[in-house]
Amino acid sequence: MDHVQHVVDQWATERPELDATPILVIGRIHRLAIALDVELLRVYSAHGLGDGDFDVLATLRRSGAPYELTPTELVEQTMVTSGAVSKRVDRLEGAGLVERRVAEGDRRSRIVRLTRAGRTLIDRAVPEHLANEARLLAPLTAAERDTLAGLLGKLAVSLGL
């Protein structure tokens, strides 16, 4: 029995009129998210990155050549606030992994571009990241992963994510 089942069993004893079974899903997702963050950060930190840094670099890299996006596009694709993206870009720019430039045709707008060093770093980190994720999912069969991905996707859409 895992911790979450223990919690639900305790509620069943103390407040049997309540349906505590949603905790079986939400509690497990929450606990897994915390544990997965720790595991994912091991790879990021091995490359001198935090999770936010990795997210920005990976987003720029997967956008395709010339590996650049506006800050608004980064906000939309990383799903964090503009303030968080700005801090991440500042940090990455200071490390020489991204650069900002003025957008053509609109001098008020900026473009964030992956530098050669940033591309080299993210190209080294992504295969390790994906191998790490595969390792973390290894207890599940391919069919179980597909089912879980579908169910989590359905839940994410229902929450507007």
UniProtKB/TrEMBL annotation:
GO terms for molecular function: DNA binding; DNA-binding transcription factor activity. This is Transcriptional regulator. Pfam families: MarR_2. It comes from the Bacteria. Keywords: DNA-binding, Transcription, Transcription regulation. Gene3D superfamilies: Winged helix-like DNA-binding domain superfamily/Winged helix DNA-binding domain. Residues 22-157 form the HTH marR-type domain.
